[in-house]
Amino acid sequence: MKFLRPAIEYKQQILEYKNEFIENGDSLDGTSYLAKYDVCEEWIKFVLDNEKESTKHTEVTANVFLAIREEDNKLVGMINIRHTLNEYLYNYGGHIGYSVRKNERRKGYAKEMLKIALEECRKLAMEKVLLTCDADNIASARTILSCGGILENEVKAPNDAILTQRYWITLKNKLVL
Q1: Could you say which DSSP state residue 77 is in?
Q2: Which helix (H) or strand (E) holds 2?
């Protein structure tokens, strides 16, 4: 698997990814507002601008990566790495958000993506990384635990019935992939 920054050459796959998630009623986690964009080029500009403190459009600087399966150059997932946390991200969103296509789940891609993302966090000199998931998302919880996540607590956002689990991963010098 390789991580690539969003690029126009993947426009068709990005649009198919977005439509697939919408049709399935799935959350586009880790896609940095992809659902809000009708024009792929505008979304690509948004996420690339958001990588730099000087041009970011959101409260925190972040990187979005396309997770591309090398054998067939297929987009299987997306992941968003936030360099810092605002209050909402600290409580409910975490440093990393990710999603995997429905027909590509249960193949180990989420775990592989998270491991690569943790290496990216290490490059950003992060020492601890917060990940969150809905309490009923057993697959995501297992992925986080398999990468060293330690459950800190469970919280509910105001006016939200969903219970969120908060996990911390302490980054060591080198993660074994």
Answers
A1: E
A2: strand 2-4
Residue 98 Cα distances to 42, 95, 155, angstroms: 21, 10, 20
Complete edge-to-edge strand list for the sheet that includes strand 128-134: 2-4, 62-69, 74-82, 96-100, 128-134, 163-170, 150-156
Q: Beta-strand (E) ranges in 5-160?
A: 62-69, 74-82, 96-100, 128-134, 150-156
User: How much is the average pLDDT of 49-78?
Assistant: 93
Contact residues for 23 (Cβ-Cβ < 8 A; gap 6+): none
Query: Class for domain 2-125, per CATH?
Result: alpha beta
Please state whether beta strands 163-170 and 96-100 pair in parallel, antiparallel, or not at all (unpaired). unpaired
pTM score of the predicted model:
0.91
Mean of per-residue pLDDT scores for the chain: 93
